[in-house]
Design goal:
By secondary structure, the chain is mainly beta. It contains no helices and 7 strands. It has a single domain, classed as NPCBM/NEW2 domain (Jelly Rolls).
Length: 103
């Protein structure tokens, strides 16, 4: 996802966990034409349930496990961390939702 951007996912109140591995895409490494910094946010029904702080090329992969129990809507947000969006290519790797079964 290129900053600034967001993705909304309808959960309908059936999910309990959102997990992912967050970090800058490797294509940004070795380039000097931008700062490549982002900040990740996860919102459940418009309420922040995770904030990464600033992530740059030197930040280790952040593995998150977020409680989204009962939320009807999940929003994944990436900002430019306040310094412009050159090379702000954010990955939500191995993103998974744990949701209830059903027929």
């Amino acid at each position: 996802m290129h900053a600034a951007g967001s993705v909304r996912v309808w959960l309908g109140g059936t999910c309990t966990r959102f997990t992912a591995a967050l970090g800058l895409d490797q294509e940004t490494y070795g380039r000097s034409d931008g700062p490549a910094t982002v900040a990740y946010s996860v919102l459940a029904d418009g309420v922040s349930v995770y904030e990464s702080g600033t992530v740059d090329r030197d930040t280790a992969t952040k593995r998150i496990d977020v409680d989204v129990t009962g939320a009807r809507r999940l929003e994944l947000v990436v900002s430019d961390a306040g310094d412009g969006n050159a090379l702000d290519h954010a990955d939500w790797a191995d993103a998974k939702l744990s949701c209830g079964g059903g027929a």
